[in-house]
Every structure is written in structure tokens, then in C-alpha cells.
Amino acid sequence: MVRLWLSGGWLAILVLAAIFAPWIAPHDPLAQDLFLERLPPVWIDGAEPGYYLGTDSLGRDVLSRMIYGARIALIVAVLAGGAAALIGSTLGLLAGFYGGWTDRIVGRIIDIWMSFPPVLFAILLVAVLGTGLHSVILAIAIIDWTRFARVIRAETMAQSRMDYVASAVVIGRSRLGTLAAEVLPNVLPTLLVLFSLEMGIAVIVEAILSFVNLSISSDDPTWGGMIAEGRTQIHFAPWVLVVPMVALFLTVLSFSQFGEGLKDRIDPVLR
Amino acid sequence: MSVVLEIDGLEVRTRGGQRLLRGVSLSVETGETHGLVGESGAGKSMIGKAVAGILPRGVTVTDGSIRLDGQDLLALGRTKRRRLVGERVAIIPQDPLTALNPCRRIGGQITDRLIHILGWDAKRARLRAAELLEEVAIRDPARVLNAYPHEISGGMRQRVLIAAAFAAEPALIIADEPTTALDVTVQKQVLRLIGDLQARHGTALLFVTHDMGVVAKLCPSLTVLYAGHVVDQGKAARIFGPAPHPYARALIAATPRYDRPEESLLPVPQDVIDALDREVAQADGAHG
After folding, report:
1. Long-range contacts formed by B258-263: CB under 8 A, 24+ apart
2. Where is coiled-coil annotated (chain A) (predicted)?
């Protein structure tokens, strides 16, 4: 219960920050001012009023960049997570329910997919697709659908062996109808947890791609890009590195905890 | 009296060629209760599954025929067979935990058959479902209809399943060890309930169990199976009579008895098993 509220609270803050970024950000995230470079955050001596989390080596406001960065992080989380969930769980449901050849083909594809190291695969894909937000999203979906396919397939298999599925067949429900009406609602809690986890993973992968400068243009504020910049300044301005890392950590943790908490709430057996 | 179910020389094999049923023949008449007994793995449940068309993956009927209301099920197309079985056959499954979908309310799971098979509208089906629940002695039907399976007890769930099985007035009900997952005090109630409903609705009942005590009470005729092979078949009065088949006697001796504990729960003697194995091997040989 507590974790649901805590994680939900942090995610709500992020969502609000992302939506209202132009109104709440104190400064333009792209505005450079070399007179104001490497200002410390407000709790350290020498801070300038109005720059709550300090500035980076080009004098850009860290808080404003964080707020705009949340936009990109959330867009990637929802779209990439959603696309991976859609592809992965569709294939997983079909493989687990129909078995036989369907299962064998999907199983082999998953095996092949999983033998690629995911981060290198992502870098390769973005290099091929070209940088930009849409190719980052596409790359994450293409790589991470196996996460859904594997788990949903196993869960579907277990559910399909239940007597209520046999009963549905006996009373003459169609195969696809049985899958949709009897099996799907029972794998939904698992799917939701996975989706939540995947959103966290998508945020990390986006940060990694930004870190190696393969996400969107390096001017645009992304958390990964900020970490990359902060790395070079770690001895002079550690906050530039620490602030996005903390945000990243909290966000990924919140996504996974939110999923778990939600599962407890919606699963009728656990409720 | 007419024959509802007639199975003739039914053979079921796994994909690997292992025989699960070796030429089983039996028939069940309208309103009759036929017991199907044997140890676990004897193939009792396979018969019911073959009739309902829900054999596990990789297991198929390789020989024989199954006639329901005189129609050969194995000769029918998939859709026709599904429709006929759906209308005429219902199953009371073994485990009430897995037989109800945990994500759906009880009401919908009972009315499914009425809406799908009989084509009733939802409102009428719901009224009938409430009646059915009353018939299986559930005191508060309105509450149970709206409950999820985990909110009611195991005995109640089994009664819900019985109500669902009788809902569309099937000609044949296959009860697959309906009391095994229940504790002894509830078992008796559930058995009486099945017997009562069956008598009232005139349904034929194929009762699968390993419990000879239950068979003696419920089934006038029975089939004894060993390794998918029919060991003995006929009136219960003869099989439970003075000179039963050695295997039937061994099964009776294996049932718990509280009055004579030292004479109950005995394992099946090795010489009986050897004789059965010879019989099965002989039948296999004769069959090819």
C-alpha cells in the first residue's frame, strides 16, 4: 500500500512536470550563460537565487533541464514499453495457447533474439535506423518484446491447462474467444507488472543511448545526456552528474514498485 | 430406456504410441449411473475426456467409436461435434479450484452454458442460475452469483460446478472424481446432491472415481479398469457380491473403513497385479 503511494507519487510528479514543463521550468533549458557556469545547488554556499539545482558547465539550469528531460523519459517509457508489450504479449499468448508449431516458431525466435547482448543490439539498431526519438523507441520495442513473450507464454500455458478452459471448449466457445475471455483476464495482472517494469527499463536504455550520444540531438535535455556531461565535470560540479542519476534511480524503482503494488490491488486472488 | 452413450472398442494413444485405453466398451442409458473405477493412471478420466473432446495435447483416439444419442462423434466434423457435445454433455470436474475462472464472477460462469448453448438472453439466464443455486442448497444465491470464486469455500465451489453442469439440462454428465478434492464431511453432501439432481432431471451419469465406497452407494452398474483395459464390467450387485473379480476385491480392500481399520487400506496384492499384467499383454497380443 505504502509503496503504491510512494512510487505513484513520484511518477505523478514526473508526469505533471513533463506536461507542464514550459510553465514550471524556471529557465530555458537550452539557454547558455557562461557567466553562470557551474553554479552549485541552493544548499551549497555560493548558490545563485533562482538556480535551485545549480547549473552545468555551459551555465544551463539543471532543474529546467531535468524537467524537460522527464518529458523525453516518459514518452520513451510509455511508447516503447507499450509497443514491446503489444508485440511480446500477442506472440506469447498465441504461442502459449495454441502450442505446437506456433509455439516452436515463437520459441526459436525468442532464443535467437535473446542471444544478442541487448545494449549492443540497441546501439546497432539506432546506428542503422538513425538517431532520433522514434528510432530509440523502435529499437527498445524491437529488443525488449521477448521479455513479455517469454513470461506471457509461460503464464498462458499454465492457464490453458486449467479446467475452466476445457469447460469453455466443451460449451462450444471458439478458440480465439476462449483465449480472449478466459485466458487473457488471468494473465493481465502479470502483463501489467511487466509493462511497468519495462517502462523503467526503457528509461534506462534511453539514458544509455543518450549517454553514448545515440539518442536525440545532444542539445536537447535528456537525463542520459546530462549524466554524460556531468561525468566530465565530476570534480568541479558533481551535482550535474548526481541529480539526473538520482532521478533515474527513483524513476526506475518507482516503475517496478508501482507494478508490484498494482498487481496486489487488481489480482482478485491476492486481494 | 434409450442408450445415451455407447463406447465401443475405444483405443487412445499418446503420440509416442503408448496405449492409454485398450479397447474399452461401455454403454450408459438415460437416467442411469455408471461407475468407472480403477487406480490412478488406469485411464478412467481419459474416457470422459475422449467423449468431451478435450484430450490433452498429443493424445488421440486411434480406434473404436463413441456414440452419443446414436451419432458417431468421431465421424462428425469438428464444429458439429462441438455443438452436439455442448448441448448434450456436461462435466463436473475434479478440482473446483481450477475449474472456475478466478477472474470472473460465479454468475457469468453458470449462465455461460445457458447463453451459449440454449441461446437465452442474459436476464433469463441469470434468474435460472439463481434457481439452480437454490437447487444445490446454496442459501444466498444473489450474493454467490456476484462473488468471485476465491470468496466462497471449496464445497460451495463444487456445488456451483454441479449447478453449472445441470444448467442446460444435458443428457449425460461426466463426473470426474467430483469429491476427491473435498474433505470427507462435504463429500457425502455433494454425493447426495448429485444423486438427487440426477434423479430429478433424469440425466445419465458417468461417475469416475477410485473410491469403491462411493461406487457401491451410487452406481448400480460399473466398469473396472486396469491400465486402460476393462477388467470387469456389470451390475454392482454381482461385482460387490460373494465372488468378485480378484482386482475388484483388492480395490474394495483398499478403501478406508473406520469400523475395521486393520482390514482396510490394503495395497493391491502382487499376484493380482501380475495376473492383470498377463491379461493386458494377452489382449494386446490378440489385438496385434
Report:
1. none
2. none
pLDDT digits (tens, 9 = 90+) for B267-276: 778 878 887 8
Joined grid coordinates for residue B279: 491379461
User: For residue B63, what is the enclosing H or E element?
Assistant: strand B59-68
Q: Please report the sign of the dihedral spanned by the C-alpha atoms of residue B21, residue B24, residue B29, residue B31.
A: negative
Task: Determine contact: B93 vs chain A, CB below 8 A.
Answer: yes
Backbone dihedral angles phi then psi of residue B74, each to the nearest 5 degrees:
-75, -20
Collapsing DSSP to helix, strand or coil, A157 comes out as helix
Cβ of B103 within 8 Å of Cβ of A173? The answer is no
Q: B219 with B207: CB under 8 angstroms? A: yes
pLDDT at B287: 59
Minimal C-alpha gap between B53 and chain A (Å): 7
Those residues with Cβ within 8 angstroms of residue B165's Cβ, 6 or more apart along the chain or in another chain: B90, B91, B92, B173, B175
Question: What is the DSSP-derived secondary structure letter of residue B150?
Answer: G
Length of chain B: 288
**Residues B214, A249: Cα–Cα separation, whole Å:** 62
CA proximity to B96, closest of B162, B172, B167: B162
Chain A residues whose CB is inside 8 A of the B169 CB are: none
**Pick among B46, B59, B80, B101 to test the A interface (most A CBs inside 10 A):** B101
Element (H, E) at B253: helix B246-253
Q: By the 8 A CB rule, do B34 and B223 touch?
A: yes
Asked if residue A151 has pLDDT above 90, the reply is yes
Contacts of A180 (CB under 8 A, 6+ apart): none
- For residue B270, what are the contacts with CB-CB under 8 A and spacing of at least 6? none
pTM of the predicted model, to two decimals?
Answer: 0.80
Cell 509416442 maps to which residue? B16
Task: Point out which residues pair with B71 in neighbouring strands.
Answer: B68
Model confidence over B224-251: pLDDT tens digits? 888 888 888 888 888 887 777 778 778 8
Contact B85 A164 (CB under 8 A): no
Q: Which grid cell is A89?
A: 504479449
3-state SS, residue A221: coil
Query: What confidence score (pLDDT) does residue A266 get?
Result: 74
Start-to-end CA span in chain B (Å): 36
Report how far residue B127's alpha carbon sits from residue B107's, in angstroms, rounded to the nearest whole number. 10
pLDDT at site A149: 95
Instruction: Give how far A103 is from chain B: nearest CA, Å.
Output: 13
Options 2.30.110.10, 1.10.3720.10, 3.40.910.10, 3.40.1080.10; CATH of A2-18+53-266: 1.10.3720.10
- pLDDT by residue (tens digit) across A160-196? 888 888 888 888 788 888 898 889 988 988 898 899 9
| Domains of chain B with CATH codes | 3-287 (3.40.50.300)
Distance of CA B102 to the CA centre of its chain: 23
**Which residue reads 499384467 in cell numbers?**
B277
Q: How far apart are CA B81 and CA B74, in angstroms?
A: 8
